[in-house]
Structure formats: C-alpha cells, structure tokens
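Please decode residue identities from the backbone states below.
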C-alpha cells in the first residue's frame, strides 16, 4: 500500500510540475538564463554520451581529450576563472548576462560540432538484440556493497509514462524501486542525470536505495530498508517497462557503476564498491571480455551460437567427443570460423584441459548445456508435443542453478541473461544444410568472450541442474597465440 501511495504521489507531483512551467525564452531574466543553461548542458551531455557510446576504447580517449580541450578553451574565452562548484558556476552565469551569452553561444557551437561527428548509431543498434532488462553478472552472498545506476534523463527521448525498475535480484525475486521517466527528468541534477544509489547489506539481508544523493525510506543501517531473502546471492538488475534497454546501455543513457569509475555520491560507512576490476588487468578488465547478451557476434545472436555449439559438438564421433576429453587434446578439432567452442563436461570428472587458441577468435563457454530429442521408439516415449506443452526448455532454463564462469580469477555468477532456449522443437542443421539433430530442444547457459589478450589465461565454468542430478565443472588453461 505504501508503494502504491508513493507511486501515485510521484505521478501527481510530476503532473503539477509540468503544468506550472511554461517555455522561458526571455534571456533578460536570470531564471530564463538558468533554464537555458540547464537545457543546453543536458543536450551537450546527451550528444557527448552518444558519440562515446559508438567509439572503441582508443577512440573514446581521443573524444574525451577533445572535450577537455574545448572545456579549457570555453573557460578561458568566457573568463570563468576558478569556478569549480556546479551550483556556483550556474549561479554566476545566470546572473551575469555577458558570461551567459558567451557560454551559451560556445556550448551551442560545440553541440553542432559533436552532432556532425559520424556515430554509426543506427548501424551499431542494428547489430544488437532488443532486450528490456539487464543484470550485472557479479553476485554476492555476504558483505556490504554500494553501486550507482545513472540515467541521462535530459536528452533521452523515452516517453514520460515509461518506467524503469532498479533493484537487486537473487534470480527469483526483486527488491528496489520503480520510477517514471517524467519523474527522472523532474529530479535530474544540473548535468541532466538521475542517479539511483543502492546500498546492499547482505550481512543483515537488507537493501537501501536513494536518488541523487538522498536516501529514501531510510539511510543505510536503519531499520527501514527492504528485506532480502536469507541464504541467497544478489546482483544488480535494471528493467525497462516498455522498450528496449539495449539502446540506453549502448548510447550511454544508462550506466551501472559498480566502482570502476568514481562514485557521484559518498559511499556509506563500512560499504565497498560492488565490483572493482583487478589492478593488474592489462588491456581491459575481465568483465569487459564478456560479450553483452544482447550483442551479436560475427552477425549472429547468442541463441544462434548456442545452436552452433551443438553442430560443432556432434561433428565428432562418439569415441572422440570433446566432452569426454580430459586433457584438451581435442580442443582444436573441427574448429573453424570466428568463434572457438570449448566443450563442457561432467563435474564428477574434475576436468582440467589445456588448449591453444589462435589470436582474434571469440570463445564460447557452455557453462551448462542440455539437449533433449524426441524419441517415440524409446522405452518411455516422449514427443515434441510433450516438450512444448510442458514448456520443458523454459522450465529447464529456469531450473539451472549455480552457473558461473571464472576468468583469470574473476568470478561471474549472475548469468540469468545468458540462458537461451528453444520454446519449440527444432531441427539443427550444419553449415551445408545437413540435418544434425531432428526434433530437439536445448537450453543452458552460454557466455561469449571477446578475443582475449595474447598469453596464458585460466577459464573455468559450470552449473547445476539438481532435478536431473546433472552437474558441470570444467577448467581450461588457455594459451592465446
């Protein structure tokens, strides 16, 4: 009831706020100058984020350097001096017509420059699979953790009635907050951002949330947080109500900061960053090796590559099946194309394999993989109709437990988004169109890795399906050359 009351109150406040404000174009008035500054600043952040979101890591460095150079030039040209506090900066500009005119004009000019830069946005988005949710792939079962989820509310064209949920999840339940897009824009800070803070206390099984530096419903340590289930591991989940969240992630409108970047607001006492990459990470940290579940690899989606895993696996004879390999001797067998497949295996075998992978290959990890075929001639016949009517693949996917991957010592085990399955029976075909498996369903957890840096890497993966008494656990010593 409290949640419903808060939700309705947010809608009412947003409606009243929108009705009370008309367009303000008289720049002789300080209030209108302030509004114009906030608007152009929000536009600048939106366009800048869009440009960054469509650049490689090295290209982002060039864009950031160009932006810093422009900021220095603007401050010098407009004689802004040593203004460092955002509030003071806006206050001085809105009260000084000359400084306002200078900053407003140079900002509009910079906007035009950024908008002329080729972004490839449409092409890039075409390579993504639209999804309405995302989960950060790290979970914890104990400790006190902090993270910030930022939305670029100004400059984002989502409809006012759309909502976003920011929560923690154990894979079955959610605990957090929900906010409307219109409310985000109303509460956005001077940078046009709306920031949700999460303080996750897994020692006391409670989560606290705040917006733009203000805790709502109780500060961390109080009795007013949202209770969490005992004995569960939790990660961070963001869900969009109506449209793809992929776009916002890709363009930088949504950012999940677990501690890699400096937090906007003070971390509560005794809490630590939810996930910080290792300090010895070379080109990029292991979390960035994971291809996002909504991103295509070599033009194909993750479910397609999961299907091709079975094609590769069944290209071997029964005697030389890679899942039975305990040394890694078969690791390179029948490997071709842009993706290198690693085989799963029974956890009871404690499999440790060695494998050399050519540089530049993506690597597909089957943390858990299950295939079932219709067998009407079996002692207990089972048909495709039974598979589909019982939603066997969907239920099997949901029943997977403890699926994980470990990349050079970094563990990722909130892999709910990486579980493709076939809702109906399919015929799996090879590269020449030949039938590999007929009348089958499959499900599991597959994770695609970016081409790894040259050298030696250790990769482990596995999972459980207790209902079938099935377990997977494999470790590979990989050499990239």
């Amino acid at each position: 009831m409290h949640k419903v009351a808060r939700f309705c109150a947010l809608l009412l406040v947003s409606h009243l706020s929108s009705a009370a404000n008309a367009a303000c174009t008289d720049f002789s008035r300080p209030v209108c100058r302030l509004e114009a500054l906030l608007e152009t600043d929000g536009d600048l952040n939106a366009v800048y984020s869009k440009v960054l979101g469509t650049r490689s890591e090295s290209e982002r460095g060039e864009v950031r350097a160009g932006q810093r150079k422009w900021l220095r030039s603007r401050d010098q040209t407009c004689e802004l001096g040593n203004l460092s506090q955002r509030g003071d900066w806006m206050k001085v500009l809105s009260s000084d017509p000359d400084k306002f005119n200078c900053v407003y004009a140079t900002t509009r000019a910079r906007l035009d420059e950024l908008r002329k830069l080729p972004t490839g946005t449409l092409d890039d988005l075409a390579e993504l699979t639209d999804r309405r949710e995302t989960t950060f792939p790290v979970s914890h079962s104990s400790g006190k953790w902090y993270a910030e989820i930022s939305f670029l509310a100004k400059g984002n064209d989502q409809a006012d009635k759309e909502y976003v949920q920011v929560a923690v999840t154990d894979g079955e339940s959610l605990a957090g907050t929900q906010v409307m897009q219109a409310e985000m824009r109303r509460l956005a800070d001077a940078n046009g951002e709306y920031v949700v803070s999460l303080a996750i206390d897994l020692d006391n099984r409670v989560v606290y949330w705040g917006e733009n530096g203000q805790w709502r419903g109780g500060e961390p340590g109080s009795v007013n947080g949202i209770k969490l289930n005992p004995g569960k591991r939790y990660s961070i989940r963001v869900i969009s109500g109506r449209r793809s969240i992929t776009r916002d992630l890709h363009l930088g409108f949504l950012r999940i900061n677990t501690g890699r970047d400096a937090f906007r607001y003070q971390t509560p006492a005794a809490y630590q960053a939810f996930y910080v990459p290792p300090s010895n990470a070379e080109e990029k940290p292991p979390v960035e090796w994971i291809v996002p579940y909504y991103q295509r690899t070599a033009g194909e989606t993750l479910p397609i590559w999961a299907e091709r895993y079975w094609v590769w696996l069944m290209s071997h004879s029964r005697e030389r099946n890679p899942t039975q390999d305990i040394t890694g001797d078969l690791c390179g067998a029948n490997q071709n194309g842009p993706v290198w497949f690693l085989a799963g295996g029974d956890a009871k075998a404690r499999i440790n394999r060695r494998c050399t992978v050519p540089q530049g290959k993506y690597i597909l990890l089957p943390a858990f993989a299950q295939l079932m075929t219709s067998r009407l001639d079996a002692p207990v016949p089972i048909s495709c109709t039974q598979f589909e009517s019982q939603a066997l693949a969907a239920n099997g996917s949901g029943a997977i437990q403890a699926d994980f991957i470990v990349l050079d010592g970094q563990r990722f085990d909130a892999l709910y988004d990486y579980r493709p399955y076939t809702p109906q029976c399919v015929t799996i075909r090879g590269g020449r169109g030949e039938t590999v498996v007929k009348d089958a369903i499959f499900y599991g957890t597959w994770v695609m890795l970016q081409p790894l840096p040259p050298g030696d890497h250790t990769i482990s993966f596995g999972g459980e399906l207790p209902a079938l008494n099935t377990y997977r656990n494999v470790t590979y010593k990989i050499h990239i050359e």
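Observation: Residues 198 and 245 are 19 Å apart (CA to CA).
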